[in-house]
Write a structure and sequence with these properties.
2 copies of one chain form a homodimer. The first copy, chain A, is an alpha/beta fold and 486 residues long. In chain A, 40% of the residues lie in helices and 17% in strands. Chain A folds into 2 domains: 13-237 and 437-485, Aldehyde Dehydrogenase, Chain A, domain 1 (3-Layer(aba) Sandwich), CATH 3.40.605.10; 243-412, Aldehyde Dehydrogenase, Chain A, domain 2 (3-Layer(aba) Sandwich), CATH 3.40.309. In chain A, the strands form 3 sheets. A 7-stranded mixed beta sheet of chain A has the order 10-11-12-9-8-13-14, sandwiched between helices. Chain A has a 5-stranded mixed beta sheet with strand order 15-2-1-16-17, with no helix packed on it.
Chain lengths: 486, 486
């Protein structure tokens, strides 16, 4: 077929500045729009994406080589996510309204004044889009949706892996913004690494989101922290997502675990932030033989040459380790199984515990439960840790504790790929999984990243934002004198 | 009287490491203690402080030169604060429990798994104590109380201004911890700048709190951000706390405003993070003449020579500005009033808008409402902005909006000194007021700084923490499928 992809030029410095300044001017009016109107813009973007799926998906296929069903599902997830945040905006719970009535007898020893607190938007958010989810973590993805929902203008730095798709999605968002009451500048799109760095260091940018590599993310985190006015950097960098298979199930459920592992490692050619990159099984477990007996899994084409080259380098680093051997696979577009011992990993965490972003995993053989626990306690920060187990015994409890110490999400008899967009989701974890472990980039709690509280002391009713007035005209959930009300 | 103060040696590198490592070992057991037991330790510290007030207050007077009533009130505030956090721990709302039940028809397009999320403690917290509140922002102050409440061990780096008091308070906390079921290492105390830096860069420290100068705080923030594993740095650096007096009340309430200002600037010798350091009044307003007619206010002795020297330097910098003149005061232990124009401030924000930590304020004369608004919109990040006004008119609304953009707390016809410890309090604001504007160091929300969420996916009931079990044995508040429950 004829390519739909035209070259996209890098954004000039002058245009970057103009985009950021337009976002800065839009900050006040966008924050001040009625919650229902703000929600309508998010719903409008969702509707527009769905309506244009027929153009968006073929373009995404051409630029990312991901299969059609995966992209169709991802687009559905993306518009769902926008609508879920629209609902959050209408509900108003994200405002975290707290009201203390004046209290002359407050036991602190001094009268308590009337204090009313709510969260307000931070200002323009710069979003570095990811390569591997061209819809869900890109121009109209979760970071954009949650920042817009919080009341912040968004500037997306497009991922170089799908520039034409980025431009089309950007133009659709722009259409919806323009057709609405939202101010110009509420959404902006820039291209090119230098443009991203320029925006990151612009004084008007108030927060940054990033999904990508550890090296690239850390470099940008450092820039954000070294600004004259440092700003929050919500970066998702890298994760190995260890899977620990206990002796109790390593024999009885070997077939199921081997097949689940191959699916989790190979889907989307392993280019998922939650791909299991380390699987620990006991010595002699049939999981290994099951894996070796399974025909090599076609893993599909990689997103682009940059990603493929990075994957090759990461694999080479692990494979070159004297204690690592190739178990199976490794030809182009085939899942690669590497193998080593738990002792080798524990003794050289820096050498063996880093992400291979692609269809590869490291099978780790442990001798006994003590060694499994030692391994589990030695992993650095992760997005996820999964445990395959049976009874609720001491080993299970100890593994869960180690998992919760290392990761933002802990799974039981489940694979970590597929991150559900929900109220209780936590997609984030200790460094290097993310640079802000107390936050999530998936799920409704993602909105809190772009807010800060302001307390109003003794401000008369008629000067308070409606959310803080005693009559509660918008019926937002509130906490009054320390207790939730609805 | 005989000095109760003996010299306190700086903590050696070996002892710093041992203290941090003890805290790291205590992390798991302290986090795992039942909430009721954790609360009991906080209550126990409060009781011990109250019981020993007779020794603590004289020692504080000797080391800080603050007056007895102020210190007695501060100690009451400190024990109240510990008890309020104990109550928070028992309530369990801080755990932010969210439960999503499994849902095969979740409209995202893929079934929603069972997801249960709660916040867990980060690990050892390093707390750089402040000089100006030897109880409330020092060894047993709000940062320590909220971090212990979150389930984190605490290492306090004592402020050099009150070493003997720090040692005594530390020994009282240590007694209570030892008498309880809490693990050794739950609390530690170190002395000396180098000791603080060593602890800050120790891999086992998970978060830092700081209250002090902008230069010192920024240097430590940079160290925390540049660690191989960066950690959150909750720093309160510097604030001018502007006060804007509208034309509407600048004549009618001039006497009350002048007298309130002198009290706010002079109390505790101006050594309060919320001292108003800039007061804007309209040209010709009698506030200025009222101030000049008031006898010079005795402001009291400064905390120590280091603080006094820093104050003198900051005052000199402002006073040397060609557009600034001395209006009144300025002899030792006397409140200093400097004066300038709004235009001068707007034109040289860097030269005029920095904190003078002591009994001084800058009276700023504005020509008209437009200039007042321009001034209000030009101030950098603040802990507080106060507005003295009358009707709810456009000027009032515009000033409140500018104030909320700049500060974490906005006051109406009130002085910002005296920060109530409550549920809705927000003590924090955009940089340079703090390094983390979304957090507070005062009030119950302070606890969230030391927590991060973990989501448990498809984990069986018997392996879940009790807070996440369906039956809710601890009766913690929860949000289920997006809605609050009690």
């Amino acid at each position: 077929m004829t390519s739909m992809v035209e070259p996209v030029a890098n954004t000039t410095a002058a245009l970057v500045d103009a985009t950021v300044e337009a976002a800065a001017r839009a900050s006040g009016p966008w924050a001040a729009m009625a919650l229902a109107d703000r929600a309508r813009v998010l719903d409008g973007i969702a509707d527009r994406l769905d309506a244009r799926a027929g153009e968006l998906i073929p373009l995404a296929i051409e630029e990312t080589h991901l299969p059609e069903p995966r992209l169709a599902g991802e687009l559905r997830r993306t518009s769902f996510q926008l609508r879920l945040f629209a609902q959050q905006v209408r509900d108003g719970d994200f405002l975290d309204v707290r009201i203390d009535s004046a209290d002359a007898d407050w036991p602190m020893g001094a009268p308590r004044p009337d204090l009313r607190r709510m969260s307000i938007p931070l200002g323009p958010v710069l979003n570095f889009a990811a390569s591997n989810f061209p819809f869900a973590f890109s121009v109209a993805g979760g970071d954009t949706a949650s920042a817009l929902a919080a009341g912040c203008p968004v500037i997306v730095k497009a991922n170089p892996g799908h520039p034409a798709l980025s431009r089309l999605v950007g133009s659709l968002i722009d259409e919806v913004v323009t057709e609405s009451e939202a101010p110009r500048g509420t959404f902006g799109l820039i291209f090119g690494r230098e443009a991203g760095v320029r925006a990151l260091t612009h004084p008007a940018v108030a927060a940054v989101t990033f999904t990508g590599s550890t090296a690239g993310g850390r470099a940008l985190f450092d820039l954000a922290s070294q600004r004259p006015v440092p700003i929050p950097f919500y970066g998702e960098l890298g994760s190995i997502n260890p899977v620990f298979v206990t002796p109790e199930v390593a024999w009885s459920r070997a077939t199921e675990i081997a097949s689940g592992l191959l699916t989790a490692v190979g889907s989307s050619a392993g280019q998922l932030c939650t791909k299991p990159g380390l699987v620990a099984v006991p010595e002699g477990s049939p999981v290994l033989t099951e894996l070796l007996e399974t025909p090599p899994v076609p893993a599909g084409e990689m997103l682009n040459e940059v990603i493929a080259a990075g994957f090759a380098r990461a694999v080479e680093q692990v494979r070159a380790h004297p204690e690592v051997r190739v178990l199976a696979g490794g030809r182009p577009a085939e899942t690669l199984l590497l193998g080593t011992t738990a002792r080798a990993v524990i003794d050289d965490r820096d050498g063996l515990l880093h992400e291979m972003f692609g269809p590869a995993t490291l099978l780790v053989i442990y001798r006994d439960t003590a060694e499994l626990l030692e391994l589990a306690r030695s992993v650095p920060g992760q997005l996820t840790v999964s445990i395959f187990g049976g009874r609720a015994d001491d080993t299970a409890r100890a593994l869960l504790l180690a998992a919760a110490s290392a990761a933002g999400r802990v799974l039981w008899n489940s694979w970590p790929t597929g991150v559900s967009v929900t109220y209780a989701q936590q997609h984030g974890g200790p460094y290097p999984a993310t640079t802000a472990s107390a936050t999530t980039s998936v799920g409704t709690a993602a909105i809190t990243r772009f807010l800060r509280p302001v307390a109003f002391q003794s401000v008369p009713e008629e000067l308070l934002p409606p959310e803080l007035r005693t009559e509660n005209p918008l019926s937002v959930p509130r906490s009054v004198n320390g207790a939730h009300t609805q």
